[in-house]
Amino acid sequence: MERTGAQIVWETILREGVDVVFGYPGGAILPTYDAMPAYPVRHVLVRHEQAAVHMAEGWARATGKVGVCMTTSGPGATNLVTGLANAMMDSIPVVAITGQVASNLLGGDAFQETDVTGVTLPVTKYNYLVTHIDELPEAMAEAFYIARSGRPGPVVVDICKDVQNAKIDWTYPETLSRPGLHKALRQEPSAVLKASELINQASRPLILAGHGVQMGKAEAELIELAERAQIPVVTTLLGLGNIPEQHPLALGMGGMHGEAATNHAVQECDVLIAVGMRFDDRVTGRLDRFAPKAKVIHFELDPSEVGKNVRPTVTVLGDCKQTLGALLPGIQPATHGQWLETIRGWQATTHQVDIADQEVDELIPPFVMRQLWHATKGECTVVTDVGQHQMWEAQYFTHLRPGQLITSGGLGTMGFGLPAAVGAKLGKPNELIWAIVGDGGFQQTLQELGTIVQENVAVKIGIINNGFLGMVRQWQQFFYEKRYAGTPMLSPDYMKLADAYGIPALRVTANDEVYPAIQRANAHDGPFLVEFQVKEEVNVYPMVAPGGAVGDMIRRPGPAIVQGYSGVQPSW
Amino acid sequence: MKHTVVAWMEDRPGVLTRVASLFRRRGFNIESLAVGHSETPGISRMTFVVDGDERMVDQAVKQLEKQIDVTRVEDVTDQPVVVRELALVRVRTDTQTRAEIMQIVDVYRAQIVDIALDSLIIQVVGAEDRIDSLIDLLGHYGIREMVRTGRVAITRGRATLHPTHAVNGAGKTNGRKMGI
């Protein structure tokens, strides 16, 4: 079949089951846009290309498929860099199609020419510069394969304008022959056996489960392992929902803002079973004092993550659904009653000291997170931005299933929340989607309100407005003697802003308004914005100081929580 | 400790950039890097000398293996290998020193590949320490110019390192030049 380069792009996208593309047209990608109307693809016109890649990420996280974004050359492509870096850090499958100047102009500093493969090289799993139509069919097919296979990640296909117009006799390359695409893992044959022996001998075992569990769809195997040997489960930020947080063995998130009981468990365990996680510094704190009593078993798909930060005693390489599945038959039932009792003791203290979930006189963000859970019965997907609100969501929203939280983990990309929520909503149209964002992050990508209205994306937006870049302010309070340099932030009148876009909105300033406002937003058929004007200087507790050991936490200063409308103000 | 690492990779545009970028970003120290064709068309072979502790070298090997273009990586440091490096040295001479230098060249089993009135070009092939030692000696006469290739390595007999990448279609270069 004779096809133009542009047609090959669309036909490959459709073969991947992708029916939404987030993009922004321009000169160098025009031939591909011109071919688009002939294909059953929904194009979402963003207001800035950074949002296109964040939307593709949100869509990919919600659907499990490869998200696609499309931009023109030069500035269109360079605006993708932040989102690509985010997808690289969080292993999100994304293919970015970028137009490039005609091949005969390459290297001559033509209008809107940028070395896109050069610029994106360190922030992509792979990238292509396609200068000839012969190379396009394989480049497109490989791009999707690379993006979703193994440890997923972003791939850029930069296509010269003349290639988009050129014709070729095309058939979809069913088999991809490049040797580098099919590398076998060097698995030690006895790895699974050694892992089961260590687990069976453990007296204080602990599971630390990350994003890989969700990407490998291994939640059932994980829970079976936990239940059979009564092993408590800590998750990373991106691993929240691996195990329902109401499960008696679920300890919630560990790390810099993990609950104290959870971090104590990490420091005291004797066997640490790490599954699909990479020992990020936000999880480990100071490395040489991380889990000092533990032998570590690392279940991991990417060999380069093994031994990078923490040296495991046993390494089990591979897809964790398979490896955990192979492990289970060798696991003996156990109770670990004393160990679980110790953890429950820590948890009781934690609840007294750190948890701020009681009603207090002022409107504080943790209360909003709890109410969001109650008002949705936990039946929604939350997409957050980055900062304090993100940590409060992680701590105070009870995640019940994988994928319930979509957030920017490794890169910590402010501005991610709103566009990623749009992508998630388009990926799961029947799901209630709440974008929970701070006033800082929201203002980085609020231009996407235009996209939301134009595409009628029924996403609910909750702005946690504390008038500061809150997390940075918290660091300034703790480590820079409250010198709030560059952190106080003015917001526009969000009611007027929403009104300008034609989005209904509510402002919430008191506790008793929170629940009804969320309910009203949920009941509205379409996008809805709620601004929560919360108390300004509230901190996320506990906190492991950067460079400190995970067990050394800054706790909420006493007297901690004051219940009811007492008139006595707690310390924040 | 210095490790010799051999990597095979598809001969595609940008592959050297990828490898160089990886080493820079991860902070791996490359002492030397030699690149050329391998016995398989379309597959290049790189020999790295990486200086670092076990953990760093282990990471370097794994990060290289992770690259899509890379088909295989081997740390051959502890294997029986033939290791060679080539140097070309242009050394200052006059009528008095020429014979003396030629004697040294003989001892080192090096070769004289160019003679001018006031200089000689000496080619020496061997392990690094032998080349270092010769260069040290020649330094007394005055080295005007020098170039070294960096280490290349190949395993001895039997246990020959043979990349398992001779799959269908591999090695196809689409007529492109070495992309490196």
Task: Describe the protein in words.
The complex is a heterodimer of chains A (572) and B (180). The C terminus of chain A is likely disordered. Chain A is an alpha/beta fold and 572 residues long. Chain A has 23 helices and 22 strands. Chain A starts with a strand and ends in an 18-residue tail after the last strand. Helix content of chain A is 36%, strand content 17%. With 180 residues, chain B is an alpha+beta fold. Chain B contains 4 helices and 9 strands; from the N terminus they run E-H-E-E-H-E-E-H-E-E-H-E-E. In chain B, strands 5, 6, 7, 8 and 9 form a 5-stranded antiparallel sheet that branches. Chain B has a 4-stranded antiparallel sheet with strand order 2-3-1-4, covered by helices on one side. Chain B is elongated, with a radius of gyration of 19 Å. Classes of the chains: A alpha/beta (572), B alpha+beta (180). The interface between A and B is medium-sized, with 25 and 26 residues.
Summarize the structure.
The complex is a heterodimer of chains A (572) and B (180). Chain A has 572 residues and is an alpha/beta fold.
CATH level-1 class of the largest domain in chain A = Alpha Beta
Q: Unreliable runs of chain B, pLDDT <50, ≥5 residues?
A: 164-180
Enumerate the spans of chain A where pLDDT stays under 50 for 5 or more consecutive residues. 559-572
CATH topology group of the largest domain in chain B: Alpha-Beta Plaits
SSE inventory with pairings:
The complex is a heterodimer of chains A (572) and B (180).
Chain A (H helix, E strand, L loop, with lengths): L1 E3 H11 L4 E5 L5 H6 L6 E4 L3 H15 L3 E5 L3 H4 L2 H9 L4 E7 L15 H5 L5 E5 L5 H13 L5 E7 H5 L1 E3 L21 H11 L3 E5 L1 H5 L3 H10 L4 E3 L14 E4 L6 H9 L2 E5 L5 H4 L10 E6 L13 E4 L2 H8 L9 H17 L11 H12 L4 E4 L3 H9 L8 E2 L10 H11 L5 E6 H7 L3 H6 L5 E6 L4 H10 L14 H8 L3 E4 L2 H13 L4 E6 L9 E2 L8 E2 L18
Parallel strand pairs in A: 2-3, 2-4, 4-5, 5-7, 6-7, 9-10, 9-12, 10-11, 12-13, 13-14, 15-16, 15-17, 17-18, 18-20, 19-20
Antiparallel strand pairs in A: 1-8, 21-22
Helix pairs in contact in A: 1-7, 3-5, 3-18, 12-15, 16-17, 16-23
Chain B lengths: L1 E9 L4 H12 L2 E9 L5 E9 L2 H13 L3 E6 L5 E12 L5 H10 L3 E5 L3 E8 L1 H11 L4 E6 L3 E4 L25
Antiparallel strand pairs in B: 1-3, 1-4, 2-3, 5-7, 5-8, 5-9, 6-7
